[in-house]
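Per reviewer request, we include the raw input and output of the structure prediction for the construct analysed in the revised manuscript.
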Amino acid sequence: MKTVLNLSEADRRFLADVSQLAFGNPYGDATQLVRKTLGGGDVGTHDLAHAEVRTLLEGLRNQQALSLADYAEQDRQLLHHALLFDVLHVSCKAFDAMVVAQVDKKAQVCRAPFIASLLERMTQIGMAKSVALHYVAIYYQIRRAHYYLDNVLVGSSASMQKLRHDLWNSIFTHDFALYERFLWDRMRELTTLFIGGAGVGKRAAAAAVGYCSYIPFVDKTEVFAESFISCFTPVRVAKFSGLRLESELFGHQKMAYAEALENYQGVFSRCTPAGTIFLDNILEVPSSIQAQLLGVVQDRTFAPVGDQVTREFRGRVMAAAPGNMETVRNGGLIRSDLFYHLGVNTISIPSLKQRLQENPADLELLILHILGKFTEQSPAQLVGQIIEQMHEHVGHGYDWPGNLLELEQIVKRILMVSHYESKG
């Protein structure tokens, strides 16, 4: 009878912490506690943990050949994550550079030649090629999630930390082990509804999830199957009306109506399995079209205008609605069945007033971020001038009715005419 190996209790506790650090929600209490345990909360915690993991794995290899099949199931999973962390951590900077390069290239897919050596190392430690490719795709997701949640969503208030936590769960669920085994290719069937006031950044929050979908790596061509920038398609439903909106969403057949001169593929037809369709302000969608949207989120099928043949929808649906949960649910502008299907996961976006009440220092960070987007630089010297001009007219107790959108307009107006007078 084959002997089943077991880790020591100390090694088991350590590797459980490493698994949480490497693959758990970085904005959750469990990961924050592990950071303190492993590295005192220092930014170099991952490097410290990696060195200890490597020492532990080398020690196990010296005792006997390190074969996961020899260990009990619980320990096997811990060692599996430790091996992944050991191999993937050294490629962290290369993945991060890849993310930045893809943002610059937009829809043009970037090559990732560094992944060939990474795959070789993964297969050398006993992973099947298909398994290694799977984890390369997941790790690319993880690094994109850090990029968007840490760098694009600005602010360190408590409500922003909660938002990051909720968005991470929208990408990977609350349980990474569940995600990596069963849900990585099912997330497209899980909808998310973003709720919040005008200008709070619902689209930016949705984009942070949409840009972080699972995208397979094609090792023969050394590229990921598509650019993640192409995976997020926002639709401002207020821009269209009637048949135009129906056509934009579902497509149409030639001569389905007077202006339909050619066949047209709507956004649901064009969406890839890694894609996300974001419906900005679902409350403005007519009830007749809401009924068709229900078919998309419930049965994952739709039919173009003028066609009786249904198509399969392959991507993910997200939507946004202004207000709060109660007003959206009880306002009578959205079908109750569609609301419950869209609201499988509901995320409330905090107002700017709430964020600044929790952490006034976020105002400077937000202004610097706006200036960086507008000027493509980081002119820190302008921040103080803008805040000084702003407070002359706005005041410290301002309610910020227009939220981030209003703040952006204030910054631009002060740059142009040196002052701003509140309309609130």
